[in-house]
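Dear support,

I submitted the protein below through the web form. The confirmation email said the job was done, but the results page showed an empty box. After a refresh the structure appeared. I'm attaching both so you can tell me whether what I see now is the final result or a partial one.
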Amino acid sequence: MAQNHSSPLDNEDLLQEILLRLPPKPSSLPRASLVCKRWRCIISDPRFPRRFRKHHRKPLLLGFFDKEIGKVPVFTPMLDPPDRIPVALPENLLGREPWGHLCFSFHGCRDGIALFLDHQRHEAILWDPLTSVQRCVAFPSWFLDGIGKDCSIQNATVLCPASDNQHDHGGCHMSPFKLVFAWRDALARKEFICIYESKSGVWGDIIPTRTAYVISRYRPSILVGNALCWLLEGGNILKFDFGKHTLAVIEKPEDTHAAGCEYVQSSHSSFQILRGEDNGIGLAILSTLELSIQLWVRKSKCDGVFSWVLQNTVQLDELFSRPARIRQLVFMLGYDEDTNVIFLSSDSHDFILQLESMQFNYIGRRKYRSPRESCPYTNFCTAVVRSTAGGDGGAENVNT
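What the results page shows now:
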């Protein structure tokens, strides 16, 4: 009597588990959805993309925006075809004022959303580069009527209010979200922040702190646990605690100079805030003299007092393997908090350094060097192909 041997793929639950383990590359789900109608039905189920993102946890680094003063940010894809994602700014984000200045300032990306400020219409624009969806939030009225006359917004941040464990990266579709503005009153020597909540549609109270240093315009904020951190000129850190609603200044490590880190005091390219282990605040300090990066992390002692601890020193000359002429021409251009990657530029070359594996990758060559910032863009691409004819043919791309 013949036995009926079923394939593991005949088991619906097992097949779903197999599909969940496909690589989180942009081409994975569209290709799998073309195999057959059964696979397409599983992948196009609205619950599947959420499970897929939850399984892989960390979004993919799709590319980065090059941000230069007075220029429109340009996106550079980092993946090879067929996973290469082209991104072009929409027309409404390319406007210039009559005298040639850009109407917009770009403030980086988080949770798959790029943030722009329209300084003519006085509104923040949230833009999803994968779906082209936009949302606008008007500046607070009191900023335009009073405070804004003497101050300018130095830094702006968008983020999902959920914690790291709860956040569905790429699946929240800009709802809900928080928007954080940071600005400085030079006469009062104070920094201020204010938070907009999309759930209420209201800007909150102004939160001030006194500091002699200015928030760097060239470094987006870094989300570390329940705190948002900004780099101050000179290397100190401004920390906002979402739970306590307090601002505090964290001094940079005291003995960085003694450790051989020679840097220009006002140079933002020598310092980078990091997301450390167990949601601790980290700081990378570049030494152009030693051609090295010191990796510091704040840790709590037994008495509950936090202090800086030097975790590692990365010798860049061993990684670059390039002629001596690159010495003192190395810059930190940016950092991705999701993948723990630092963007570096040496002479006319660009690189990334993965801090967990210490893997060093070349990502491009420049015809010229110029002051700029690299703003990484991470997201999950869960576009699928859905049948339009009821069979296995006639398909269309659908973003879920």
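Response: this is the final, complete result; the empty box was a page-load delay. The helical segments are 12-20, 28-33, 37-44, 47-56, 141-145, 316-320.
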